[in-house]
Amino acid sequence: MGFSVEGVEGIGEITAGADLAAIIAGAASLEDGDILVVTSKIVSKAEGRIVEASDREAAITAETVRVVATREYDGGVTRIVENRQGIVGAAAGVDASNSPDGTVLLLPVDPDGSARALATGLRELTGRRVGVILSDTLGRPWREGQTDIAIGAAGVHVFDDLRGQVDASGKALAVTMPCVADEIAGAGELVKGKSAGVPVAVVRGLGRYVGDLDLPGARAIQRPSDRDLFRLGADEAYDEGYRAGFDEAQAEGGER
């Protein structure tokens, strides 16, 4: 078993209104079963998701659904939030890297919808049954550094659900469900890089994960809040517990 990952050169700078499917189809030689890992920033550029850098903090606020944690540092405050796409990360995904001077990029409004439109266009233009993953870079709790994850997906099984099967020793697998979409996104980042000007990678040899365009997208990867054991940062969880305890004590005192 094996697979290959190759960066697609010749994409060029993307501007609002660009036909990404046509640009990628013209730059890549695709085969059935290929999975394209597309940096979400070029999708944001094509969709016009650009704001002035001076409006960055306001943009973060507008994109925020829930604040998870905040930390002060010299020169400002880092905000870890859940954004409208359901992704928990720093600054709601608002980013100045690989953005025109004086601007910042917002994530696509509907990453799964963007991936579906791109996969549909590529299948029509090339006649190939391909999948698409939109990737973005995030940090991880408890671990230094960052990695790319899938924030949008179409025509790809985002999980390899092994629950109910057995391992090599014959033991039943009860919870094993690798998130292959994130694994593929990370593999794509190894050849795209941050400064090489290669925003698209083709992953070949994993056609078993390519499927219909109505498969669940990357939104299915987000863990529901009622099952999230790390819903808040440590300080925020402490403050919330303190306030709840204080309110309960006040209520009990008022009843006496």
Automatic annotation (TrEMBL):
Entry's EC annotation: 6.3.2.31
GO MF annotation terms: coenzyme F420-0:L-glutamate ligase activity
Membrane-crossing segments per the record: none
Enzyme class, broadest EC rank: ligase
Residue ranges occupied by any Coenzyme F420:L-glutamate ligase-like domain in the UniProt entry: 11-205
Domain of life: Bacteria
Keywords assigned: GTP-binding, Ligase, Magnesium, Manganese, Metal-binding, Nucleotide-binding, Potassium
Gene3D superfamilies tied to this protein: CofE-like
Entries under Pfam families matching the protein: F420_ligase (PF01996)
PANTHER family: COENZYME F420:L-GLUTAMATE LIGASE (PTHR47917:SF1), PTHR47917
Full protein name: Coenzyme F420-0:L-glutamate ligase
Organism: Agromyces soli
